[in-house]
Every structure is written in structure tokens, then in C-alpha cells.
Amino acid sequence: MAESSLKLQFAPFCSALEAGFWHQLTQKKLNEYRLDESPKNIKGYYYNGDAVGLPARLTLEFSAFDADGPTPARCCPASGTLYNTNTLEAFKSTDKKALLDKAANEIWSAIQSGAALEDSSILNKFILLTFADLKKYHFYYWFCFPALCFVEGIQLLRAPLSLEQHFSDKQISSLQSAYDNLCASSGTTAVPHFLLKYSEESVEVAPLKELNSFFPDLKRVAVGVYDPCTLPQHPGWPLRNLLVLLAKKWASQLDVVEVLCFRDRTLQGVRSVQHSIIFQLRLSDPAPSAVCPKSVGWEKNTKGAMGPRSVNLSECMDPKRLAESSVDLNLKLMRWRLVPALDLEKVVSTRCLLLGAGTLGCNVARTLMGWGVRHITFVDNAKISYSNPVRQPLYEFEDCLSGGKSKALAAVDRLKKIFPGVNAEGFNMSIPMPGHPVNFSDLTVAQAQQDVEQLKKLISEHDVVFLLMDTRESRWLPTVIAASQRKLIVNAALGFDTFVVMRHGLKKPRESEESSPMSASSSSSSSNTPAATVTAGSSLFSNIPGHRLGCYFCNDVVAPGDSTRDRTLDQQCTVSRPGLAMIAGALAVELMVSVLQHPEGGYAVASSSDDRMNEPPTSLGLVPHQIRGFLSRFDNVLPASLAFDKCTACSPIVLENYEREGFQFLAKVFNSSHSFLEDLTGLTLLHQETQAAEIWDMSDDESI
Amino acid sequence: MMTGERKPASCFLDEKTFRLCCRLFLQHSESIQDGWIWEQIKGSDEGFMKKTVLIPVKSSLLDKQHESIQAENTELPTDDFEADAEDETAGVDAVCESHAVLRYEYHVLYSCSYQIPVLYFRASALDGRSLSLEEVWSNVHPNYRQRLKQEPWDTLTQQEHPLLGQPFFMLHPCRTEEFMKPALELAHAQNRKVNYIVSWLSVVGPVVGLDVPLSFSTAVSAPD
Ligand SMILES: [Zn+2]
């Protein structure tokens, strides 16, 4: 007979762990178990009301450690033993076969003694072997659902039918109410195993412990099992040990056993047990010698092989990772909701060099962190003084004691405290300045040379350089180096109640430098505004492509290092209105972000105040050259100005000299008076011809 | 117009009413077995309403979860149990299924500071690893993804669950008033009592994949 060769196959449990379980295990390990490796009682549960397509699961929640706690309604409890090892080594070397054998023996003796009849939950035991690596929040685990085996397997006499194929509506509703009554009388909402008797008219059920009396004869033994499986042809795991119990009880006296795999689901308030399955089988004696039969049950891993599973929960348990993912999420939500075109990756991955860790530096750093920028480097040679903390938000009173900590280093420490995911570094170093001689001794020359090399290296290792110093002269060297290296500079400087935030023009890459600037600009900016027809003064400077924009020094008619000149900006940081640094620092970062969002980056055409009504060039809006703020009027303007061919920092002649002579040239600048640069660039000549214009003067003179 | 005059259709909810609303909600859920339960925090009188939904998915979606420690995992012994592995296939046959299941957990908590209910949720794989919001969304219908980005749903944040201390996503309550007010005022004008939890959850739930069957609106009453 073909049918008799059919062997019954079971759907194994699939372990299902809630995050709460791991959180709780972590707590237990830290506070209670510590190094205690002794077995612990835990509990899980399984459910027979799943929709088709879901695997039969044994679920462990955070409540799993409360072995006497309640089980969710209509779920069957399963008691388990937790073996939590202290080391991965111990996890690996634990004798899994011995653990399984031990559990199998317990089940077997409960079957033999009859204890399993009284309390059939012993049939649904499980083992959980774990190792919790709490440094990495990696958890290794291996479940075992011990099942005793029939050596020959189990012969199906009648293949599974759905209950509605086998039972009439009347029988089905009779079964439902009989089962509900059984639950009620046993004080639960789920009964794992039960006995079954039915006629055409009615269905009777009884608890397993009535096994000896329930069936009038052994011709028609039928049992019901609460079945977590949803497959139409297979029972779930819990049936296995029940069948062993039956076989042990009656051995070969039974010709046939009928099994109902009871599945009970409610969808939108409509209950169904019709999809339960029912089949007939023949049992052989599982263990003629009374020795515990062979057992199986270790769960396969996700690859389908016999092996442990592991889960990495650092993202939801490691506080540092949590901080990172929360920061990222907030930024992503900004993109998803408000600015879908925002290229966050470009912002987050930008390496920022902050020259100056004072009032501006602190505020720039904090705003960069807000944008999720991870790579922030500070350069500053100052120490934190008592007046600093109130204006410089990365420092505290304690930082001022005993002479004060180095700003660059303290700023890094604070950033890491604010956000451990930041990749911050600090350099306590000076930036050589024009008109500040370095030639006192070989030592000072060597130091200056070393500082220049260091600065060159730092600039080359970053994508954006922020000039946030409080002196004008100190901005000169990084301006020259960054111009030479084609790195974007964002510059911020404060007056008492005025500020300027600007991006320096980004020189074209060397290969194309040969081509005429005019033709290059018309191709890249697609500008068709004829300068001659422009009437309004400011419009003269509209549509300036990024490579033709000026630098901080372009508007100057004197070289840096001139200490006699009365300046409106710089050197007055400490007497600026306190809110100014926050405004300017924030604008500097926002300007950088807008530039980064422009497809042409630092080569983007400068937006002006006039563009405020036009279609913005980036998803975030305008990309101005400069933002000049007047706090007294609570007003900002967006001027743009051309690079000046006699600029003491970014003009071709300065860059040529720097690139040709390197430190030799720089040393001359440091050691000479300002007239050296003015002579070199031709500014001296110009000086004699033109009246010096205040840089605050927003007249057309700006461009010269 | 008068200051101090409070609209009868207040968007706020005191904790007692919250609990009463929840109880009525849970009663109906129980009657249709919608899966909502009240989760009491052990040793305290605090608790929340909870529902877990399991959804089978393509296993490729969850592959990512295993990448991270699989490399280190290769050294883990998988050979020890060859004998058993043979048993599994030779002795007693087990059916092989490949399971990828997402578990969505929805928690309804009372926020004392906002005096309204707040919805927390997370999605995880069967091994307990929580999914990132992108992973959640990659499994979400595009139409509904679009909706999630639109107001008033621009209030999703990652927060620690106030009672469990675990990271969850939360629909921030700051804009609840915006959509609850018209609903409550309409009901008030029609002289109809509404269960706050039902009205509120029917609006915020679907946005994060949580269905609230229609029968809740008809069958669940408001507390007296
Ligand atoms: Zn210049």
C-alpha cells in the first residue's frame, strides 16, 4: 500500500525573540547572574491562531524571566531552561548533546511515571543556550526543542485533511464549545493537549489526565493538540512528545490513532477552527527496552545548518550607536519631510577644518554637529581663559583653572562628550602671519616651517576650511594655501554689531586654468547678462561664477599685517555683541551646506539679494558669496564681488610665488612689513591712485 | 474668545479618562480578538496598551541583519552537531520552511506632559533586532510611504520608551491637536460621544501600518 509508506513530518519551532528579551537578559546578567552560569528557569509561549504563511514560533519576551508570570491570552506556555555562559569559549564548548539528553530524559521519565499525564506542559520543554557579549552587544544563542523520536518514524494511515473536510458544521461548533468549556474548567485560555471523542451528533473533549478512562475501547483513540503550525499537511512540533506518550502508554495495542491539530484563529471577529487538520497514524513502540529514545531538537541557524544563531543589537542597545542613529534619523526626517532633494551624505561626509576654536569656532562646531558632520578638526594656539566659557559654548569654568586648557584639545573633548560618534581632532598650534617675523632664531624659523607644513597637510586632508580666527593676518596663510590647493574656504569675521560670512572664490582646477576666464565663465554660468546694460550698481556683480569670486582680502587695498589701520572687523571679537558669533557661526555652516548642495559646489554662481525672488539654485535655497549682517538693523545683505587681480592673498602673482618658492616666499611675507605684499601685487601703485575704501562701503568700489 | 473658557471638545485627556477609554477599547478588541492587550509594568501601576502584528516578508529584506556578525561567526562551531543533523534528516523528518517575519509592535502610552495618548512603535526581526526606519519603510507600500512624509506625520522621532527604556519610534504628540480638534468638535456638534483612543488611533495608526478595524468606531463607546 502506497499510503502506509507515508511518514509524518513535523514543522519545527522557529525561535522568536523580542528585543525586550535581550534587554532583560542584559539586565539580569549585569545585576543578578553576573558570573553565575547555573541554569535558570525561563518561559516562552506559542500560539495556534496565526495566519497562513507564518512559521510556528516559540516566542520569548522580556517577561520570559518571570517563569511564573502570566501567559498571553490563548497562548500555550512552554517552560525552558536558560544556560547563559560567561564566555564565547564556554558557549562553544558546552556539550549540547548532553543538554539535550538531560532534557529528553526528564521528559521520558515524566512519561514513564505518568507525571506527564497530570501536567502535560513537561512535554513542551525547551533549552536556550546563550552568550551575551555586552561590550559589543552581540548575542549568540541556540534553541533546542527536545523531541523524542520513533526509530522507524511514524506511519500515516490517512493523510491530513482540513477539519471542514472531515467534520460537519455541527461537529465543528460542538468541538469549539467543548474546547472552550475545557479551557474554562481548567482555568486557562489554551489547552496544549486534550482527548477527543466524536459522533455525527457531537464532539467531546477531555483533559489528558483522563486518558485511562476516557476511551471506552482502544479502537478509536483520538487526541487533540494545540498546534502552532499553519501548514496544511504538517503538524507542529508539540505533537511529537504527545505521540511518544501515547505509544508508551499503549504500545502496540493501538491500531490507529486519530490526531486533531487544533488551530483556532479569529479574523475581524470571526472565529475559525475549520482549517485545523486531522489525520490518522499508526504508532510503534518507541522504546521497547524502557531506555529513553533518541532525541532531536537543536534549532538550525539561518543558513539551514546545525549551528548557533547570533544577533547584533548594538544599534538599539549601545548608547553611542543610539545617539548616532538618532542624530542621523532626525536629519533624514528633515530630508524626507521637507527637502527630498537634500543630499545629506554629502554634508555628513564633509571633512571640516576649523581654524580658530574661540567664539566662532565653538558655534561653527556645534552647528556642524547639528548637521551630522562627523569629521571636525580644530586648530588654535590659545588657552581657555576665565572670560571664555560664557561666550564659547564648548568650554566650562573648570577648563580655565590652572592656566587653562588648550582650546583645540578641550573643544575636541567636549565634542566627544556631546556626541561620541564624532571624529574630532585638535591641534594646539600657531598659524604664522604676515608682518609677524619668524626669523629671530633658527629655532623660530624651523617652528614656522613646521607650522606651515602642518597647516598644508591639514588643509589637504579636509574638504572645507573655516577661517574663524580673531585676527585678520592669521587668515592670510590658510587663504593662500587653500587657494593653491583648490579647497573651499568659508570665512567668518565679526565686528561689534556687524559680521561677514563668505565663501572664498574657488580657483579653477589647474588643467583648465589656461583657458580664458571669460569663456570659462560663460560656459559654466550660462550667463547672458551683458554687463553694459546693467543699470543698478549691485547687478554688475550678479551671476559671478564661483571661480571668479573674491576672497576675504580681495576688497582690501592694504596688505594684512598693517597694524596701524583702524579695522571694523577682527581683533574686536571680544567686544562684539554676544549674539553675533552664534549668528555668524551658524550662517557659516549653513552657507557651507548650501554650497555643498549645489551641483557645482564651490563653483556655483553667487546668488545675490536680488535672487531672493527667483527660483533658488539648490533645494535649500540661495548660494550667496557673502552674507553681511548688521545687527543694529537686524538686517542681512548678500553682496557678491569679483576676485581682485591685485589681491594680497589669492591673486595669481601671490599664488605663483607661493607655489614656486614655498616657505622661502612665505618667510619673506612673515618677516617683511605689509609693503612687501603690496609691492608684489601692485597694490602700492594702486594705493597712490585710489582712495582707500572702507570694506563696509558697499559701493561699486568693492570690485575695483 | 474669553480667556479661560475651555472648549467642551477639548483635545486633552486626563489619565483617568485615558485608562477608561483604553479599557473600553480593549474590551472590544477582546471580543473580536484584535490582539490588543494591557501591559502592566511589574511592580508599578503604570502600563500601556500593546499590539503585536506579524507579517511574513521576503527573506532578502532581512538579510542585512546577519551581515554584521556573521564574519565573526564563522569561527563558531557548526560541526559539533553533525551527528544530530543526520538524525534530523534520517530519524524523524522535519519540514523545512524558510521564515522571514517582521514583527511590528505598537504601544499606546499616556503622556502626562502633553495630556494625550502617544503612539510608539518598532519593527523587528524574529531574532529581536530592531529595524531602522528605512528598513521599515522599504517594506511599506509606496503610497503609504508618501503619506507618512506628509503632514501631520512629520513628527516621527526615535525615543526611549518611557516605561521600557528601549528605543522606539514615536509619533510626536505635538500635532495631535491639529487633527483631533476638528474630529472632536464635529462629534460635539453632532452631540455624539467619541472614544478618544478610537478616533485618535484610527487616524495615526494606519500611517504606521496599524489597522484599526471599523467596528471599533461603531462598537466602542466613550467613558461616561
Ligand atoms: Zn583675494
From TrEMBL, chain A:
Record's protein name: Ubiquitin-like modifier-activating enzyme ATG7
Phylogenetic classification of the source organism: Eukaryota, Metazoa, Chordata, Craniata, Vertebrata
UniProtKB/TrEMBL annotation, chain B:
Pfam families: Autophagy_act_C
InterPro entries, A to Z: Atg3/Atg10
Keyword list, A-Z: Autophagy, Transferase, Ubl conjugation pathway
Gene3D superfamilies for the chain: 3.30.1460.50
UniProt-listed GO biological process terms: autophagy
A single GO molecular function term of this UniProt record: ubiquitin-like protein transferase activity
Family: Belongs to the ATG10 family.
Stated name of the protein: Ubiquitin-like-conjugating enzyme ATG10
Source species: Danio rerio
Gene: atg10
